[in-house]
């Protein structure tokens, strides 16, 4: 059918962002005089056309006439040399387009039908002369080829007519229904099937990896042999999703060597929690661990708090913005999908990326083709993605970190976490429990299903480079999610309208429905009832698509009317797609045919067990040979500028960290605005209590000693909370393992040690794990600039996130030095432990002696400090971490804009620079009012060493002699310099 | 179908029911839906000041299930309605104008108040409810994208410019901004009129209360004349970018740990409430 296409272009008469935008592009090295911008709406209809008058009225709905102008079907004609238009590829979520469509529908009281839409794009007008290659490079910084389409025109080509009216509609051919797949083939063929996917009978192309290994494929083949039939493509794809590393965590579940027959998870992580809970008895803080979408602990008598941290690494490597956005809104759904629906109340983030000052030097293809995105582009993209997700969803994002290491240049790590709040009971129902019943209806709520995110969990980067744009990484739509989040956790839940809920994440419906089916032992789904973004999807695609913003619920038939009515009034699409049964089977129908019929026991527990072997050998690294300088002034200033130490406040201020009204101790603290490693947020406004969050990771220790690396993470994550006054016995932790090459026995050897560290140190602190996640293959394979094949693996990375409950927010302690004349204490022992430290990295040699954790001593110290804070004896407390005492003291001084005069107890045998920058664990810098000297020293015992006083405007540190004397202003400048221009 | 369930009472999540406080009989309607997100803390702030409120989804208002005429205060709270697509507050304002305009006119005819915070101010500006010199409600001001081109979340100091029932008794507001589009803009003529009619409610200023004069970060977004909030010509409507409801208590304030230490050393009592609450108390006083 012919369609009518109109184009409205909107621009500011005087764009306030012009200077910032132009400066930014110039800072990237482009000789641009000015960079103007117009927003473009391409309106496509089929059933009717719009009159000129209507289009003008529509345009007036889309602009603010006070500051904006528009054109209808005419080119915007500012002064420029080149025009670059950036739109979305077909099938990519276009939130602005959707909002414009809704506005038009509302205004003209009409509905867009199938094949009609509004598409948004951005039109950049470049002033300045640039050769074509530079222009294309500029376009590449404005767009990502995986999700964007780009058109470039010179002024002359643009003429009076402007850009073309392009309609990025998805064109699909009708696909076949379910196909049987022959598994009675050679092992070589089976392996190809597992690696590259099912051969599509129509296109002759492989459909993308199933990520099933030979043993798994044999098990599937044998299973269907006994059934006497071939599996369908739906069944095979479904098994591949359910059995994926992503869903089943096969490496953590597998038997390992002779000594870990039950696997790392059961032996180390789960066992630690079980034993800690048992020992705690009535004082057990855990409510729900490992079994649900998040873990949960006690908040008070009325509420529980949940926490979950996810990673979204591969998508973020390809589309940093979309990947990170999907990561954060995805983990929000792990909150909404916890129990009967927790309200997301705090987001956290973590980014491990390459040094943003370095360019892209890695290529996916030969001959310098298909370069990876530059670390800076990745950093800025993921920063924006998590920001947009949290900001639009009304969830504060106070807590987070960046960690820089060029081993993340091939594949960045993006951590996204969410804390939720949930009443313990409503109307006699325990809200952390849920059970679908036989006969309950399967209802899908939220966005529609498209071809986006097919094989999301298993797609290799090579496959994602192929020209199949509609299956590219999905862009999240926070507003669609916000709409169903609000109606679920603020209305439907407490009306008791549904019995179970879970999120559609990896594997889409195939995983969410099959997972819930365990609760009642069966499900029956009608795939042709699933609402689609467009026609022409094959059943297997509908079943496993990872299109975002969807939840699956179990609604009892009696409540269906009320439930659907409520969803309708909140403008949330909800569709009954089947019902839960007790047949013991997962049955899927499409077009009247059964396309899947598998026993739940085989689907969930049929995968063959693996036996893994590991190896570990300690390697000796060179020790630094640089002698200790006489004075350390210059070195401290340089240390403050290290990327893993300096301020990344540019992230903090673009993340809303005050929404929901619970800001107590935020991401930056003190007059000097220093970033904290822990934050405190009220999640129940009328309670005295508050939730503390912290995170810690030590990837630079991993290659030296993975066992102590785990200890450092656990100690530091707990310590961040204790420094604010949170009692250690209210704290729980989460583990996120992001490993590399996990088929290599040596990497597995490191993993095993780290997991053992988790067990030993969690037990020693009595701090339970409540949730965790692993991502085992964070490797990049490609080519360097000289066309040599290279593999870049991330350093084994374990992020420990902590959550704890502060009993009285009004007594919390911030990190900044407060008042001149206060006493400065160092709490805890400093030893010569600089292996993997920031100082040794600066000296160019990792060394061998990482900090060794004495968890017993630490535990006692933390209880004493928390008690001293509860008695309001402490004016400030800061946990010593990366960069050691020197950096910690400088940060406390900068935060308070207050000098210090200190004499440190440097032992005779120890180099003063090593004393200053050693990263020994379990230490704090504390300031105390002189009046509280005696009480504080009594509370802390010999652990606290008085080293001097605050005052003046200089940080003056002596050991046996004067070591440094630096202006606090200069320290602040150094601390804030590296990311000052971001 | 359970028709009885249609009259849904919104449970209050994560804010325990306020302790029995003395409430005035007049009630507030707090708008929600489509990405509005500060409705609960706004409800809490009003409750603490002594005014009860209902959070009402805009669709329930359009469907006639709730009536604006049952309320005396209408609040458009903060949020990211429609993800700021097509301009912050624009799409939500369109939805109000296209569906609720008559009801809103009637409400404005009565002795009622309207408050818009952040996204709410953006909605009010797009609806023309401020400045509304002559009640023709055309768009005369804009809240453009921040000069920095991205969201800015930080504490700002506000100075009340002209006394009205909104700003009475306020010396200083110290609360967060958190917006991507708060850059107040209008024609020179409009600005002159706004100033002449004493409609500037709050300006951004330095910590010593001297004018920000456009300087970042005191003026966080580049707002013309450092304007953070204005009232309508008839004073019934207040729109402001900063969020007083996000810092209700003393320990929500950015610098509270330092102020607390100073107070303790000097033997002064440590405050419990933040001065920002005065805005909500003023509303209650207006109706009392």
Automatic annotation (TrEMBL), chain A:
All residue ranges annotated as the PurM-like C-terminal domain in the record: 438-589, 820-953
Domain Phosphoribosylformylglycinamidine synthase linker per the UniProt entry, residue ranges: 206-249
PurM-like N-terminal domain: residues covered: 292-421, 686-774
Keyword Ubl conjugation: no
Transmembrane annotation, as ranges: none
Pathway terms, separated by semicolons: Purine metabolism; IMP biosynthesis via de novo pathway; 5-amino-1-(5-phospho-D-ribosyl)imidazole from N(2)-formyl-N(1)-(5-phospho-D-ribosyl)glycinamide: step 1/2
Binding site for ATP: 308, 735, 772
EC number: 6.3.5.3
Family note: Belongs to the FGAMS family.
HAMAP family listed in its UniProt record: PurL_2 (MF_00420)
Protein name: Phosphoribosylformylglycinamidine synthase subunit PurL
Organism: Methanoregula formicica (strain DSM 22288 / NBRC 105244 / SMSP)
Automatic annotation (TrEMBL), chain B:
Keywords noted in UniProt: ATP-binding, Cytoplasm, Glutamine amidotransferase, Hydrolase, Ligase, Nucleotide-binding, Purine biosynthesis, Transferase
Species lineage: Archaea, Methanobacteriati, Methanobacteriota, Stenosarchaea group, Methanomicrobia
A single GO BP: 'de novo' IMP biosynthetic process
Species, as recorded: Methanoregula formicica (strain DSM 22288 / NBRC 105244 / SMSP)
SUPFAM superfamilies recorded: Class I glutamine amidotransferase-like
One Pfam short name: GATase_5
Lineage: superkingdom: Archaea
Keyword ATP-binding attached: yes
InterPro entries, alphabetized: Class_I_gatase-like (IPR029062), PRibForGlyAmidine_synth_PurQ (IPR010075)
Gene Ontology MF, one: ATP binding
Name recorded for this polypeptide: Phosphoribosylformylglycinamidine (FGAM) synthase, glutamine amidotransferase domain protein
GO cellular component, one term: cytoplasm
């Amino acid at each position: 059918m012919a369609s009518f296409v109109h184009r409205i272009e909107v621009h500011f008469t005087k764009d306030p962002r012009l200077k910032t935008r132009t400066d930014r592009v110039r800072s990237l090295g482009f000789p641009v005089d000015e960079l103007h911008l117009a927003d473009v709406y391409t309106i496509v209809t089929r059933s009717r056309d719009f009159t000129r008058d209507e289009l003008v009225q529509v345009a007036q709905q889309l602009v603010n006439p006070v500051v904006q102008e528009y054109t209808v079907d005419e080119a915007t004609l500012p002064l420029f040399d080149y025009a670059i238009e950036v739109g979305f590829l077909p099938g990519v979520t276009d939130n602005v387009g959707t909002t414009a469509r809704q506005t038009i529908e509302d205004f003209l009281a009409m509905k867009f039908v199938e094949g009609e839409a509004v598409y948004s794009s951005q039109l950049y007008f470049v002033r300045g002369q640039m050769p074509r290659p530079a222009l294309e490079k500029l376009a590449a910084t404005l767009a990502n080829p995986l999700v964007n389409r780009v058109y470039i025109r010179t002024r002359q080509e643009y003429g009076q007519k402007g850009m073309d009216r392009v309609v990025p509609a998805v064109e699909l051919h009708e696909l076949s229904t379910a196909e049987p797949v022959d598994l009675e083939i050679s092992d070589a063929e089976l392996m190809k099937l597992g690696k590259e996917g099912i051969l599509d009978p129509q296109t002759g192309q492989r459909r993308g990896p199933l990520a099933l290994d030979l043993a798994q494929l044999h098990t599937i083949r044998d299973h269907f042999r006994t059934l006497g039939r071939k599996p369908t493509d739906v069944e095979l794809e479904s098994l591949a999703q359910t059995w994926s590393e992503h869903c089943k965590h096969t490496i953590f579940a597998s038997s390992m060597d002779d000594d870990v027959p039950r696997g790392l998870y059961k032996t180390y992580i789960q066992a630690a929690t079980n034993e800690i809970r048992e020992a705690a008895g009535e004082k057990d803080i855990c409510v729900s661990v490992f079994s649900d979408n998040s873990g949960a602990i006690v908040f008070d008598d009325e509420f529980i708090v949940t926490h979950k941290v996810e990673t979204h690494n591969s998508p973020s490597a390809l589309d940093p913005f979309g990947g990170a956005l999907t990561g954060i809104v995805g983990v929000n759904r792990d909150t909404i999908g916890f129990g009967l629906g927790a309200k997301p109340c705090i987001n956290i983030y973590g980014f491990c990326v390459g040094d943003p000052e370095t360019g892209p030097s890695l290529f996916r293809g030969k001959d310098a083709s298909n370069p990876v995105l530059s670390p800076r582009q990745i950093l800025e993209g993921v920063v924006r993605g998590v920001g947009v997700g949290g900001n639009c969803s009304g969830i504060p994002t106070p807590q987070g970190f960046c960690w820089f290491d060029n081993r993340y240049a091939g594949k960045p790590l993006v951590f996204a976490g969410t804390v939720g709040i949930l009443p313990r009971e409503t109307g006699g129902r325990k809200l952390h429990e849920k059970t679908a019943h036989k006969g309950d209806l399967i209802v899908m709520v939220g966005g529609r299903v498209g071809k986006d995110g097919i094989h999301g969990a298993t797609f290799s980067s090579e496959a994602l480079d192929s020209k199949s744009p509609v299956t590219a990484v999905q862009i999240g739509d926070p507003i669609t999610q916000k709409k169903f989040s609000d109606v679920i956790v603020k209305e439907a839940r407490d009306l008791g309208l549904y019995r179970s809920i879970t999120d559609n994440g990896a594997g889409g419906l195939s995983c969410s429905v099959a997972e819930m089916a365990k609760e009642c032992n069966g499900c029956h789904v009608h795939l042709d009832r699933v609402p689609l973004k467009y026609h022409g999807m094959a059943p297997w695609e509908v079943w496993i698509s990872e299109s975002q913003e969807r939840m699956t619920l179990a609604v009892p038939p009696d409540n269906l009317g009320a439930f659907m009515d409520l969803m309708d009034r909140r403008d949330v699409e909800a569709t009954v797609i089947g019902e839960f049964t007790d047949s013991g089977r997962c049955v899927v129908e499409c077009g009247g045919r059964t396309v899947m019929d598998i026993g739940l026991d085989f689907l969930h527990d049929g995968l063959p067990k693996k036996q893994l072997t590991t190896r570990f050998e300690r390697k000796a690294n060179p020790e630094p040979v640089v002698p200790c300088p006489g004075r350390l002034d210059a070195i401290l200033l340089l240390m403050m500028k290290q990327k893993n130490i300096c301020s990344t406040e540019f992230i903090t201020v673009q993340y809303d960290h005050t929404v929901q009204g619970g800001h107590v101790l935020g991401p930056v603290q003190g007059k000097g605005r220093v970033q904290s490693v822990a934050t405190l947020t009220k999640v129940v406004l009328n309670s005295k209590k508050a939730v503390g969050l912290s995170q810690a990771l030590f990837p630079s220790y991993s290659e030296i000693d993975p066992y102590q690396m785990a200890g450092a993470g656990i100690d530091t994550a707990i310590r961040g909370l204790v420094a604010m006054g949170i009692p250690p016995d209210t704290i729980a932790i989460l583990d996120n393992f992001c490993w590399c090459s996990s088929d290599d026995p040596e990497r597995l050897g490191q993993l095993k040690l780290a997991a053992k560290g988790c067990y030993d140190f969690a037990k020693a602190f009595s701090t339970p794990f409540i949730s965790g996640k692993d991502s085992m293959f964070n490797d990049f394979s490609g080519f360097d600039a000289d066309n040599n094949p290279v593999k870049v693996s991330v350093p084994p990375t374990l992020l420990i996130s902590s959550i704890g409950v502060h009993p009285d927010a009004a007594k919390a302690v911030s990190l900044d030095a407060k008042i001149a004349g206060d006493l400065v204490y160092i709490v805890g022992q400093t030893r010569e432990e600089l292996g993997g430290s920031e100082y040794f990295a600066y000296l160019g040699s990792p060394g061998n002696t990482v900090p060794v954790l004495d968890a017993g001593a630490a535990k006692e110290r933390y209880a004493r400090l928390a008690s001293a804070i509860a008695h309001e004896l402490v004016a400030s407390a800061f946990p010593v971490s990366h960069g050691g005492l020197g950096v910690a003291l400088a940060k406390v001084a900068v935060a308070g804009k207050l000098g210090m005069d200190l004499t440190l107890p440097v032992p005779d045998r120890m180099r003063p620079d090593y004393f200053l920058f050693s990263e020994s664990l379990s230490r704090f810098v504390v300031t105390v009012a002189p009046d509280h000297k005696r009480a504080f020293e009594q509370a802390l015992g010999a652990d606290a060493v008085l080293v001097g006083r605050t005052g003046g405007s200089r940080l003056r540190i002596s050991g046996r002699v004067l070591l440094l004397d630096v202006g606090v202003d200069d320290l602040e400048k150094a601390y804030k310099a590296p990311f000052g221009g971001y | 179908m359970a028709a009885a369930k249609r009259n849904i009472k919104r449970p209050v999540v994560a804010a325990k029911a306020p302790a029995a406080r003395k409430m005035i009989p007049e009630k507030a309607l707090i708008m929600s839906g489509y990405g509005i997100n500060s409705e609960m803390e706004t409800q809490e702030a009003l409750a603490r000041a002594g005014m009860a409120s209902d959070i009402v989804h805009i669709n329930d208002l359009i469907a006639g299930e709730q009536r604006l005429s049952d309320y005396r205060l209408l609040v458009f709270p903060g949020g990211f309605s429609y993800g700021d697509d097509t301009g912050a507050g624009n799409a939500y304002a369109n939805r109000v104008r296209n569906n609720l305009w008559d009801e809103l006119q009637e409400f404005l005819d009565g002795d009622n108040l309207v408050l818009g915070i952040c996204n709410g101010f953006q909605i009010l500006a797009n609806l023309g409810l401020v400045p509304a010199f002559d009640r023709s409600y055309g768009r005369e001001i804009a809240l453009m994208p921040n000069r920095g081109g991205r969201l800015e979340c930080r504490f700002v100091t506000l100075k009340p410019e002209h006394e009205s029932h909104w700003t009475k008794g306020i010396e200083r507001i110290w609360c967060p901004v958190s917006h991507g589009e708060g850059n107040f803009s209008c024609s020179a003529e409009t600005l002159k009129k706004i100033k002449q009619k004493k409609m500037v409610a709050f300006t951004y200023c330095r910590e010593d209360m001297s004018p920000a004069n456009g300087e970042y970060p005191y003026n966080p977004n580049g707002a013309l004349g450092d304007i953070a909030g204005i009232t309508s010509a008839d004073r019934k409507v207040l729109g402001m970018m900063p969020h007083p409801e996000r810092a209700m208590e003393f320990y929500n304030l950015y610098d509270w740990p330092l102020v607390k230490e100073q107070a303790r050393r000097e033997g002064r009592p440590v405050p419990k409430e933040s001065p920002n609450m005065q805005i909500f108390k003023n509303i209650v006083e207006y109706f009392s």
